[in-house]
């Protein structure tokens, strides 16, 4: 189902049930999975692969060259999983050879209008990026993350699973799993308790994660002391192990 005004390269690979709207452009090296819909005036170009049942809304642009002065036209890639919604005017760019040459997005994500996902970002599953959220290059985002509108994330930052930011947040350090943050620059504002309840975390587990949050933020410990205390706490709350793993892998320091 391709609108007669759309421009689709004859070598583009289209799955069954793909729909392409008026004046959309689909490039030579694009692969669109079954059931995917490309809205009017949207552009999907570059070495880009979308899984099944994705919906790209009008005027979005996927797979363009990265906004990196070192980029010299190498055939880097953009990959999306399944059932993602990419709303109006979003931009998702391919990777660079300075990293792994890949920008990757998982499945079941919602990118609201004007979201930007820069080169070499890795985004998990079930995330929600509200309007005008912006990721700089090389950012890693875990599963079930929510970014409030106008959140800006500095390059090379990492955001742990189930974390959340408020509107107008600026992240220049890593945001640990389960933590809510707000401000310019971001400060921690408690545990994402309501989000965890909605995802089926039990009251016992949430209580254990609250204890982990207190260890990290409320007891006046150095980061190394907090990591040691968290290591002991993991025996009674295994879910807190995700925080400990995140801290051990952090290179930029954490929101604190």
Describe the structure.
This protein is an alpha/beta fold and 256 residues long. It has helices at residues 193-198, 203-217, 223-233, 241-249, and strands at residues 7-8, 13-14, 19-20, 25-26, 30-32, 37-38, 43-44, 47-50, 55-56, 61-64, 77-80, 85-86, 91-93, 102-105, 110-111, 116-117, 122-123, 128-129, 134-135, 140-141, 146-147, 152-153, 158-159, 164-165, 170-171, 179-182, 187-191. The mean pLDDT is 98. The protein is elongated and about 65 Å long. 16% of the residues lie in helices and 27% in strands. Strand 26 and strand 27 (187-191) form a beta hairpin. The N and C termini lie far apart (51 Å).
Classification by helices and strands: alpha/beta
Helix content: 10-25%
Number of DSSP strands?
A: 27
Uncertain runs are none
- Output mean pLDDT: 98
End-to-end distance, in Å? 51 Å
Tell me the Rg in angstroms: 20 Å
Strand fraction band? 25-35%
Please summarize the sheet with the most strands.
9 strands, parallel
Quick one: overall form? elongated
Biggest sheet strand order reads 1-4-7-10-13-16-19-22-25
Number of helices: 4
Keywords for this structure?
256 residues; eight-stranded parallel sheet; 4 helices; nine-stranded parallel sheet; alpha/beta; 16% helix
């Amino acid at each position: 189902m391709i609108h007669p005004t759309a421009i689709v390269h004859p070598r583009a690979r289209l799955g069954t049930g793909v729909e392409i709207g008026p004046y959309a452009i689909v490039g030579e090296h694009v692969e669109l999975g079954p059931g995917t819909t490309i809205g009017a005036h949207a552009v999907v170009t570059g070495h880009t692969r979308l899984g099944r049942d994705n919906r790209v809304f009008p005027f979005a642009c996927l797979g363009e060259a990265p906004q990196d002065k070192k980029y010299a036209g190498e055939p880097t890639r953009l990959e999306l999983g399944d059932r993602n919604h990419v709303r109006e005017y979003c931009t998702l760019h391919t990777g660079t050879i300075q990293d792994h040459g890949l920008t990757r997005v998982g499945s079941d994500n919602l990118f609201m209008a004007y979201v930007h996902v820069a080169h070499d970002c890795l985004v998990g599953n079930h995330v929600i990026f509200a309007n005008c959220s912006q990721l700089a290059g090389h950012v890693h985002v875990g599963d079930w993350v929510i970014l409030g509108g106008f959140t800006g994330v500095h390059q090379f930052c990492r955001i742990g699973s189930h974390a959340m930011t408020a509107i107008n947040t600026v992240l220049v350090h890593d945001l640990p799993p389960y933590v809510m943050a707000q401000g310019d620059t971001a400060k921690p504002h408690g545990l994402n308790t309501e989000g965890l309840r909605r995802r089926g975390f039990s009251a016992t587990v949430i209580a254990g994660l609250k204890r982990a949050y207190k260890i990290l933020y409320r007891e006046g410990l150095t980061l190394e002391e907090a990591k040691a205390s968290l290591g002991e706490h993991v025996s009674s709350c295994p879910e807190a192990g995700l925080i400990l793993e995140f801290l051990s892998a952090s290179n930029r320091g954490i929101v604190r």
